[in-house]
Design a protein that fits this description.
The protein is of the alpha+beta class and 158 residues long. It has one domain: Ribbon (Umud Fragment, subunit A). It contains two helices and eleven strands, in the order αββαβββββββββ. It has helices at residues 3-26, 53-56; strands spanning 27-31, 46-50, 64-68, 76-83, 88-92, 95-98, 101-102, 116-120, 125-129, 142-146, 150-155. It has a seven-stranded antiparallel sheet with strand order 1-2-11-3-4-9-10. A four-stranded antiparallel sheet has the order 7-6-5-8, with no helix packed on it. The longest helix is centred in the N-terminal third of the chain and has 24 residues, at 3-26. The model has no long low-confidence stretch (mean pLDDT 87).
Length: 158
């Protein structure tokens, strides 16, 4: 085998291995297909998920996350963290309350029909909502998500 061909094979192998490692451990592309996070995220756009950040620190309130469900096979969603582990959470006339205090949410419009009784967020779980809240609460994704099911933070949004 010639030196030139060998170098080409090594370079291609290096690029493929680097791409595999980056996609699986650091950054993952994700295509949005609905408007559940509008106006923060646009429909039918590619966003990148930082898969490394939550290995270095815990997720924080108001961060937009990429997570999976516990179903088999899992479903994947994007949502905004509004409640942290151990806090109390409720929605009254569209307004989110954390530990009895209203949460300032300048990224969404209130839906005055939304009401949810106070509940305790489980240990190691985060309460997640979408930003687009015009539909009925029953038709909207809202859930406690276990920290182990959070796959990363959405980056590069405009």
């Amino acid at each position: 085998m010639s030196k030139t061909l060998f170098r080409l094979i090594v370079r291609v192998a290096f690029i493929l291995i680097a791409a595999f490692l980056i996609k699986n451990f650091f950054i993952h592309p994700f295509l949005t297909f609905d408007s559940g996070m509008a106006p923060s995220l646009k429909e039918n756009r590619i966003y990148f998920i930082n898969k490394l950040i939550y290995r270095l620190r815990s997720p924080d309130r108001k961060e937009i996350i990429f997570f999976r469900t516990t179903e088999d096979p899992p479903l994947f969603f994007i949502g905004r963290i509004v409640g942290l582990p151990g806090e109390t959470f409720k929605i009254k006339k569209g307004r989110v309350f954390i530990n009895g205090d209203p949460l300032k949410e300048d990224y969404t419009q209130l839906n005055l029909n939304w009401n949810l009784k106070e509940r305790q967020i489980e240990r190691k779980c985060f309460y997640v909502l979408g930003d687009s809240r015009q539909m009925d609460l029953a038709n909207h994704l809202h859930a406690q998500v276990a920290g182990k099911n959070i796959l990363g933070k959405v980056m590069g949004r405009r």
